[in-house]
Design goal:
With 337 residues, this protein is α+β, with helices and mostly antiparallel strands. The chain has one domain. 22% of the residues lie in helices and 11% in strands. It has five helices and eleven strands. The strands form four sheets. The protein has a five-stranded mixed beta sheet. Strands 1-2 form a two-stranded antiparallel sheet. A hairpin with a 4-residue loop joins β10 and β11. The chain is globular and about 85 Å long.
């Protein structure tokens, strides 16, 4: 039997290398398509849970509840307790875990629940992050011992202003000439300090044109609690991050907005480095804080609408349109996206 010549061997290797180079991108695209489908299914499952919760309690869950004392407008207060995700546990096949939850205690004191890995809260396209754990006494908003927080990717829509802002006029100090209220579907507080979860009848802009949940990105940092679904302000997003707009679309954090300057996220506590999409600025106690919708999908984020449908919002979406999709009763006319 005649052996391969050196030239034939080299040609064969070159052909195989070319085939692999052509094949790998297709494999990667197929894998991402599967991950994106799983992410979409997670949002659909959460949407079903939200509607089942609404059937029982006649409203969506509150973004977060103060378990003791008076948390007021301080989103770093240690007394924050039940979050919208914790409230949904019985509706996402986590009844046993929910039975261990004590609504009278702060979330930092309930690691057996908040440290649970919830696969339904994780987008497989994102990098999987280690949980955040208590490292001190909660100074400056860091989790306090014995806290343990699993991190997820799905966040509640807190509206067209900041996630931590009392309900009021649109924009900054009423300077932005937009007509309706900035309230979203959820809020850790509104005028008077009470938390808020909308009733379907209060979503007057239409359930098919109002976002309920979208994606966010956690960070590889122990004390940065973005994505901590068991902690107040951990799993929420909004139209504004920390930037105070002067007019029009300035300051609106569209999906995956470049995290520089005023568009950086202002989470409960900012930590870590090395990822441009999750650059952040530490926010002082009681000030307005917010997080942008972000994902590692190419070109945008997946959103759960209030009617239970899942839509893809492109990074290039018009800023005013994006903000209109986040207000539940702003009276805006929302076009197709």
């Amino acid at each position: 039997m005649r052996a391969f010549t050196l030239i034939e061997l080299l040609v064969s290797i070159a052909v195989i290398a070319i085939l692999i180079a052509l094949f790998l991108p297709a494999v990667q695209q197929a894998r991402e398509a599967a991950r994106r489908t799983q992410c979409r299914n997670n949002l659909k499952q959460l949407g079903l849970a939200l509607h089942n919760y609404h059937d029982v309690y006649r409203q969506f869950p509150l973004a977060a509840v103060c378990a003791g004392g008076n948390c007021g407008d301080d989103f770093r207060d240690r007394n924050w307790g039940t979050t919208w995700t914790v409230a949904l546990l019985p509706f996402i096949e986590q009844q046993n875990r929910y039975q261990r939850w004590d609504s009278r205690l702060p979330s930092d004191d309930q690691p057996a629940v908040t440290g649970t890995v919830l696969s339904v809260m994780k987008c497989p396209t994102d990098l999987q992050r280690d949980p955040a754990f208590g490292i001190g006494n909660g100074e400056r908003g860091t989790p306090s011992a014995p806290a343990l927080y699993d991190k997820g990717n799905y966040a509640a829509n807190c509206g067209g202003a900041w996630a931590n802002v009392a309900d009021g006029a649109n924009g900054f100090d009423g300077a932005v000439p937009w007509g309706g209220p900035s309230r979203g579907v959820f809020s850790p507080r509104r005028a008077g300090g009470e938390p808020y979860g909308a009733k379907l009848a209060q979503i007057t802009d239409g359930t098919s044109t109002t976002v309920a949940l979208s994606e966010i990105l956690p960070r590889a940092s122990n004390w940065d609690c973005r994505g901590c679904w068991g902690r107040s302000m951990g799993a929420v997003f909004s139209a504004f991050t920390g930037f105070a707009p002067a007019d029009g679309p300035d300051g609106i954090a569209t999906p995956n907005v470049t995290a520089v300057g005023g568009h950086r996220d202002f989470p409960v506590y900012c930590g870590g480095a090395g990822d441009a999409l999750t650059e952040c600025v530490d926010a002082a106690d009681g000030q307005m804080g917010g997080v942008a919708a972000r994902s590692r999908h190419t070109g945008g984020v997946q959103t759960l609408m209030c009617d239970g449908s899942v839509r893809f919002a492109a990074d290039s979406i018009d800023a005013i349109l994006w903000r209109n999709l986040l207000t539940a009763g702003g009276g805006e006319i929302v076009t197709e996206f």
